[in-house]
């Protein structure tokens, strides 16, 4: 089982959380739209209270199945938000977790910045 998630300590640009000076509710709406538009993703859960999306993706014969979690956080009274992405694979010989995270973060950054 593989796993990769965004972190400020990651060196690659597309492996870091997306931080923008916008209200977290607006950013969560954009993240929901983006997750629904991602090729191969199936959104299985949307938690509007916790600002969390859960999706699955079939990565092909050797890639297994990934569970992808997108979450948005930030202060309630200040327009500032961070969007995080985590991918966990099961049944995979070749993990696609870094690729799943980078694909979402790059497209999402272009959408909201």
What does this structure look like?
By secondary structure, the protein is an alpha+beta fold. The chain has one domain: START domain (Alpha-D-Glucose-1,6-Bisphosphate, Chain A, domain 4, 2-Layer Sandwich), CATH 3.30.530. The protein is built from two helices and six strands; from the N terminus they run E-E-H-E-E-E-E-H. Strands 1, 2, 3, 4, 5 and 6 form a six-stranded antiparallel sheet that branches.
Number of domains: 1
The pLDDT mean sits at 93
Helix content: 25-40%
Low-confidence stretches: none
**Number of helical segments?**
2
Largest sheet: 6 strands, antiparallel
Radius of gyration: 14 Å
Structural class computed from helices and strand pairing: alpha+beta
Number of strands: 6
Topology order in helix (H) and strand (E) letters: EEHEEEEH
What is the CATH class? Alpha Beta
Q: Layout of SSEs?
A:
Blueprint: E1 2-5, E2 18-20, H1 24-37, E3 41-47, E4 52-58, E5 65-73, E6 81-90, H2 97-112
Antiparallel strand pairs: 1-6, 2-6, 3-4, 4-5, 5-6
Helix pairs in contact: 1-2
Give structural attributes.
alpha+beta; Alpha-D-Glucose-1,6-Bisphosphate, Chain A, domain 4; 6-stranded antiparallel sheet
Summed up:
This protein has 113 residues and is an alpha+beta fold. It has helices at 24-37, 97-112, and strands spanning 2-5, 18-20, 41-47, 52-58, 65-73, 81-90.
């Amino acid at each position: 089982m593989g796993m990769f998630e965004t972190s400020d300590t990651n060196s690659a640009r597309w492996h870091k959380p997306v931080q923008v000076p916008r209200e977290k509710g607006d950013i969560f709406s954009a993240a929901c739209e983006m997750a629904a538009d991602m090729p191969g993703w199936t959104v299985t859960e949307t938690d509007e209270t916790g600002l969390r999306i859960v999706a699955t993706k079939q990565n092909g014969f050797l890639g297994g199945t990934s569970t992808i979690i997108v979450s948005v956080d930030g202060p309630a009274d200040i327009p500032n938000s961070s969007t995080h992405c985590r991918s966990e694979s099961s049944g995979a010989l070749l993990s696609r977790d870094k690729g799943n995270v980078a694909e979402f973060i790059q497209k999402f950054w272009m959408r909201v910045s």
